[in-house]
Amino acid sequence: MGRLAIIWVVLVAAVCAVAGANETRVVVRDQCPGKFCTFGPWVLEEKTRLVEAPMVGSAPVAVLPAGEAVTIVTGEVHAIPGEFRVHKAHGRYRAGDRLRVVSYIGGGEWMIEFAGSRYAEDLGFSPWGGVPGRRCEVREHCWGTLQEPFDWHFWAQIRTQDGTVGWNKRWGTQHSGTPFEVPE
Question: Do residues 124 and 173 share a domain?
Answer without folding.
Answer: no
